[in-house]
Design a protein that fits this description.
The complex is a heterodimer. Chain A is mostly helical. Chain A has a domain at 1-26 and 341-544: MetI-like (MetI-like fold, Orthogonal Bundle), CATH 1.10.3720. Chain A is built from 25 helices and 2 strands. A two-stranded antiparallel ribbon of chain A has the order 1-2. The two termini of chain A are 51 Å apart. Chain B has a domain at 4-90 and 155-224: P-loop containing nucleotide triphosphate hydrolases (Rossmann fold, 3-Layer(aba) Sandwich), CATH 3.40.50.300. In chain B, a hairpin with a 2-residue loop joins β4 (59-66) and β5. The chains are: A mainly alpha, B alpha/beta. Chain A binds chain B through residues 172, 175-179, 181-187, 193-194, 197-198, 279, 282-283, 285, 287, 290, and chain B through 51-53, 75-83, 85, 87, 89, 91-94, 98, 101-107, 112, 148-149, 152, 154, 158.
Chain lengths: 560, 225
């Protein structure tokens, strides 16, 4: 085997693991006061002494765990109540575009929906509510964190649902339900006793990623979470910007990572308890009753979430073209293009930066994933599916504080390449894992056939393997762009404020800028990944159609 | 025990193509009706319709009765029609015993345990309660699957090519076991293989609705041969 191929595998692995290892070290060392330039003495004492620390920790735990439990419940409810119905088919088609919408954009849209002056109140005012002014009974974001929980549930449920839906075919759901029901069990019991126990282990990792994300999210917490006290990750963000509190911020980031690890352990314990109870109940033989009411409620929940998600996006679009929209009008009284044309400076520069970073990250991610999977195919690189998930399981705050410190030390912070590299770290896991399934399933006989016709390695790769994998490649490219566009913390911390993307601009401008311009920013942020998804859908079909048209019109195949 | 009766069953595909036209039959307890016909002639669709799990795009008319009870409007789980398919569908997250407990209806803990152990012993699988289904042979799996179906106390048994996945030696053994175990039930058997059909069974051959010979004919296995 050529040694440079091993070197190539080592290079990709090193590039991937380097920011993780150095980022962890860069957080641990200042936290314990081991780096003089970055740390103040007693980081842990300092962060715990912060009067907001315990309430912020409680808030993070409450919102993170509640949102994750709700995401799991809604996903399971959706599967049980909606699977194999017309609504399921609509939902399956809507999931990828919903997933493509960045967190910050969904959060802003949700604010426009549920705020006291939001669309929900407007739709019932003044006819049903009698309100001619926005109510003052509640505020959004609320102090209890419920707005954040709703936002997280809306954004993360499609992710878990998509992961679950991808596994259902392997479980032969139709046959299991059929057998279970002919044995006398109600559909809900069939799901709870036959399908879910087999499905759960397959979506566990995705659920862990969601739990870690919900406990540590920053951008959504800044938009939808309470301000005083904020969640722990937001509190740590405020500390990290203060050079005197760097040690405290690092110590807090370590505590947050420990908190996430504790929640993982708690989940593991709960899994075992629930598993034992479920196994015992399976033997009881209780068949269960009809589930008409449960199905009705389940469908109601699914439709409500879809409405909230699509409604939020429609509201963003409406606000971005609004000149005047007074309360309690249901729709704007005057429309305008000015929000787009007069604030071009605020929209174009971040959009261009976002686009260039996203496209570069997408290309580098695809290239590195292809290199890795090809090396894996020749058994030069090992399969390391669970390792790719590492950046998604470690809280961003815990990893990036350290990685930023290392970047500062090396003098590479604020550079465009550093931002791209950090985006790549969070993008490449998705790209590798999307491509891995298709890559491993592609029959090697195609390659053997091409080799037997005299084609070399590069020709087979370029002319046979890549075109045959066009569809997953396009999907992976779209996901890479969506993930990169949504990155807030990596851009903020590693960009040192020199690279304004739509994410950073949206979060930092929120509250201080006209909501119509904010809406335009959010629409623009959503449009880029949506466009990528549309192209990923259309391009392979266009290629296929062109091929078929060639079949019917190309006269060269006709024998004269 | 009640007879299983189907009256005037017609099945049509979404494109209007007729699968079955005006099919009627009765299966008495302890007798077997074998359903034969070419692939795609609608044999499995009939079974799906009987269990209430047919594809919603297939339009169906007709009625199914278990004794005096009409089953059409009942959900699958209330019809009490045991179903065995070509694949055994032993649930992989349950042990052999748990699969059987899952099938068993009612009873105290002790009586349930006794019934499962007795059933396993009757099937020649004594002591395999805690085994992982994945470690069983094809024949053992088929027997566990049949025992599970019978423990759910069905009023009729529907078999969709249950022997076709087994090798020749095992087939005869499982056939015998099945006919003994289901001796008191009305049984509807879908098969391609005449050897699967007991000698005292009736055979119903279905073809395309527009076939010139006519859609159905009922005959004995010897006539079918």
């Amino acid at each position: 085997m050529r040694p440079y191929l091993f070197g190539l595998a080592a290079l990709v692995a090193t590039l991937f693991l380097l920011p993780i290892v150095l980022g962890a070290a860069g957080t641990v060392m200042p936290a314990f006061g081991w780096v003089d330039s970055l740390a103040t003495e007693g980081g842990f004492e300092a962060v715990v002494a912060d009067p907001r620390f315990f309430s912020a920790t409680y808030l993070s735990l409450f919102t993170g765990i509640a949102a994750t439990v709700l995401v799991l419940l809604v996903t399971l409810m959706t599967l049980v109540c909606v699977h194999d119905t017309r609504l399921w088919r609509f939902l399956s088609a809507s999931l990828p575009p919903i997933l493509a919408v960045p967190h910050a954009a969904i959060a802003v849209g949700l604010l426009f929906l549920i705020a006291p002056s939001g669309a929900l109140v407007r739709f019932v005012s003044p006819t049903l509510s009698g309100l001619t002014r926005p109510p003052t009974d509640w505020v959004v974001p609320d102090a209890g964190g419920w707005s954040l929980i709703i936002g997280l549930v809306i954004k993360e449920t499609p992710f878990l649902l998509l992961a679950a839906a991808a596994q259902l075919s392997a479980l032969n759901v139709g046959a299991s339900l059929r057998i279970g029901r002919t044995l006398g069990y109600s559909p809900a019991r069939c799901w709870s006793r036959l399908i879910l126990p087999r499905l759960y282990p397959r979506i566990r990792l995705t659920l862990l990623i969601i739990l870690a994300f919900n406990l540590t999210v920053v951008d959504m917490a800044l938009l939808l979470g309470p301000g005083s006290p904020p969640t722990l990750s937001v509190l740590l963000m405020s500390l990290v910007n203060d050079p005197d509190s760097r040690g405290a911020a690092s110590a807090g980031a370590l505590l947050l990572a420990a908190l996430v690890a504790c929640c993982f352990f708690l989940m593991w314990c709960l899994e075992h308890i629930v598993g034992k109870i479920a196994a015992a109940r399976r033997q009881s033989g209780a068949r269960g009753r009809g589930f008409g009411l449960f199905r009705f409620i389940g469908k109601g929940v699914v439709v409500s979430l879809l409405f909230a998600c699509i409604g939020s996006l429609v509201l963003l679009l409406m606000w971005s073209f609004t000149r005047r929209w007074r309360f309690p009008d249901a729709i704007p009284s005057e429309w305008t293009l000015n929000n787009w044309t007069t604030r071009g400076d605020m929209l174009l520069q971040p959009a261009w930066t976002t686009l260039t970073i996203a496209v570069t990250v997408m290309l580098v991610s695809l290239l590195s994933a292809i290199v890795w999977l090809e090396l894996e195919r020749y058994r030069i690189a090992p399969k390391m599916d669970s390792v790719w998930f590492l950046p998604l399981l470690i809280p961003q705050v815990s990893l990036l504080f350290g990685w930023q410190a290392v970047a500062l030390w090396w003098g590479i912070d604020g550079q465009w390449g550093t931002v791209v590299y950090t985006h790549w770290l969070y993008t490449v896991p998705y790209v590798v894992l999307i491509l891995a399934v298709a890559w491993r399933e592609l029959d090697p006989a195609w390659g053997h056939a091409a080799h037997s016709l005299g084609a070399g390695y590069w020709k087979v790769l370029w002319k046979i393997r890549l075109p045959m994998l066009r569809r997953p490649l396009c999907q992976a490219a779209a996901v890479a762009i969506a993930v990169s566009v949504a990155q807030y913390l990596p851009t903020l911390l590693l960009g040192a404020g020199r690279h304004q993307t739509l994410s950073t601009e949206l979060v930092t401008s929120f509250g201080g800028v006209d909501r119509r311009v904010i809406a335009a920013l959010a629409v623009l942020q959503s449009l880029l990944p949506l466009l990528a998804f549309v192209l990923a859908l259309i391009y392979p079909r266009w290629r296929q159609t062109r091929l078929q048209r060639g079949n019917s019109t190309n006269p060269s195949g006709t024998i004269a | 025990m009640h007879s299983l009766r189907v009256d005037n069953l017609s099945l049509h595909l979404p494109n209007g193509q007729c699968l079955v036209e005006d099919l009627s039959f009765t299966i008495e307890p302890g007798s077997v009706l074998a359903l034969m016909g070419p692939s795609g002639s609608g044999k499995s669709s009939i079974l799906s319709w009987l269990t209430g799990t047919a594809d919603s795009r297939i339009s169906a008319q007709g009625s199914v009765w278990l004794g005096e009870k009409k089953l059409n409007s009942l959900p699958t789980e209330k019809r009490r029609l045991g179903l065995m398919l070509q694949q055994d569908y032993l649930f992989p997250h349950m042990s052999v015993g748990e699969n059987l407990y899952f099938g068993l209806r009612g009873g105290t803990r002790q009586s349930r345990r006794d019934r499962v152990r007795q059933s396993l012993a009757d099937a020649g699988l004594a002591g395999m309660e805690d085994r992982d289904p994945a470690t069983l042979s094809g024949g053992q799996r088929a027997r566990v699957s049949l025992v599970r179906t019978l423990l759910s106390d069905p009023c009729a048994l529907l078999l969709d090519e249950p022997f076709s996945g087994l090798d020749t030696a095992l087939r005869e053994q499982i056939r015998r076991f099945t006919w003994e175990a289901a001796a008191k039930l009305p049984v509807l058997l879908v098969t391609h293989d005449l050897a699967d059909i007991p000698l005292d069974a009736r055979v119903l051959t279905i073809g395309e609705c527009n076939h010139s010979v006519g859609p159905l004919r009922v005959q004995s296995p010897t006539q079918a041969l």
